[in-house]
Amino acid sequence: MKLQLAASFLGLGTTYVAAQNQDRQPHYLVGLLNYPNSFIPDELKNHTSGTSIPKGNAMWSQSDKAPFSYVPGVGFSDMEFYYDDEGNTVNGEFFCLTDNGFGSSDNSADYALNIQHLKIQKPFTFRHAETTFEKYTEAKNLGTAVLKDPDGYIKWENGADIQVAYSVPDETWADYKAARVLTGRDFDVEGLAVINNRCAVVGDELMPAIFMVNPTTGVVLSKFVRTPDIDSNGNFIAGKYLSTRSDKVHCSIADLEANTCSSVASEVVDASEYRKHDKSGGYEGFSILDDGTIAAFLEKKSGDSTLSDEPGVRVYHVKPGDCTSGSAPTFEKFLGFYPFEIGAGNIADVSAVPGSSRFVAVIERNGFPNGHMWPGAGNPANNLCIVDLLDVDENMVMKNKKCILNYHDIDDPWDADGNGIFKYGHTQVTNEALVIVDDYCKSHVILHRYRYFSLLANTHTLLLHSGFVAGTDTNYPWTNQFGIDVSAQYYQEVDDARFMVVCFVEPIFNSEHPLLKNFGAKSTQLPATSEAEVDETAIARGADDSRALMAYDSTTHSTLAFIGGLILAVGGFVLAA
């Protein structure tokens, strides 16, 4: 398949030759934002952290910056809509979830987990009247909720408690200890599915597990629920769960009380009753579907895992609790395996296509760059794809997938970043947050649960086409993966969490657009099939009601078809997130 796009600055035809599942869609850069790493919310000031990071310059393991007299910003592992008290989305406002801190349970026992409420809006005019704006617009913090467990819901099967019950770095944590604040030793929180401003589901990597939380106050609302293992037919195995070497269930209470069990040897998990998975392989992709349930993607099948022979990463179907205190989420079924593109090996995040419980957008990626000398530095692979959750083959592999964008090949015809170059690459590779907005980049309030995919409005914002915001986690303090000199003009691209706003030319997240209407076709650029053929295809895809998450209501789907552009928030994860 070949996809023809107009070259953004030469007016020539650029040919994209698709390998794998590529179906690139015409798009353009709207602009860039940054969230200064130097900004520390009041809730995170004057609390010691980073005491387990050794002094030195070794990438990923040492830092001369640590320890810190505050809890530093480390970027965001997920990003979801912020809702007002009536359950409506608020334009340009988001709940942003940090991960476990410095990358592992071994060095993050003094990192306070938190959810931040951010204002993220970018001015853009298509250069109307030759107006231009600053290269970077700052995202603003509107509030920070430190995650805490005052009701004592978080307990492990062996009687283990949360980290602050055993040890804190010093007296600056007295208030955190009293509030039972959760840390990066307890969980590596990477997934967030927001139901309203008082209720959300969090996905963890260290077990992996899920639990309910109030995203505005940070108060935990339920016990955690472990991930069930599956048999060869995808059925849950009663009493069998996934676990990692960072799971506290493998520690003795005496060792936890002595603060000497930040993780265990891999062989300990092998010898246990649990199925071993990598400690950084849990819930990275996490999204509420149109029916209010959740698609939960494990991040990977590689690393210290027994899942490496599976044909893709596992995708589970989750039902949230009822949002009252004590009501836990539940695992409903196994949906199937998501297959990666060549060169990728990690799920970064997932967001549902508006109005759909079947189609989701997925960010997938590979590892980290290693300096800036090529060859040898490592070529990033960050693709935005759409997948049909319900169309699986005989091996339960999701077979219907299209990759519509590469973060390192972004067209910039309006020169939105003002550098005279009409291409942009979102170079931070740990992109871990995604929100689909609406299909024509409208700037309006949308009722809760429905997502929109575009730039949100301020006084300069126009109606765009389908778009997204991609943001980065920083891997702080190991941010300088390219080895860039600190004198670089825009060194904030190294230290700060960043966001990229992009719009698609066509409303590709509208259910009537050929991309979704003919999703089984090899290319949406091919001549459209007849109406009868489209109907037959749609019926065939939806015929297996046993795999459907909900009854398909075409009238409702059409009514909501105007909802669908994209804000893609790509938040890279910290170290091993």
Please give a structural write-up.
This protein is mostly beta strands. It contains 7 helices and 27 strands. It has a 4-stranded mixed β-sheet. Strands 4-5-6-8 form a 4-stranded antiparallel β-sheet, with no helix packed on it. A 4-stranded antiparallel β-sheet has the order 9-10-11-12, with no helix packed on it. The longest helix is centred in the last third of the chain and has 11 residues. The protein is globular. The N terminus and C terminus are likely disordered.
The radius of gyration over CA amounts to 22 Å
Which bin fits the share of residues in helices? Answer: under 10%
- What coarse outline follows from CA principal-axis ratios? globular
Sheet with the most strands, sense and barrel status: 4 strands, mixed
Strand % is 25-35%
Q: Overall pLDDT, averaged?
A: 82
Q: Write down how many β-strands occur, each being a DSSP E stretch of 2 or more residues.
A: 27
Identify low-pLDDT runs.
Answer: 1-19, 443-465, 523-577
Number of helices in the DSSP assignment: 7
Main β-sheet, spatial strand arrangement: 7-3-27-26
Tell me the distance between the termini. 35 Å
Summing up helix and strand content along with how strands pair, one would put the structural category as: mainly beta
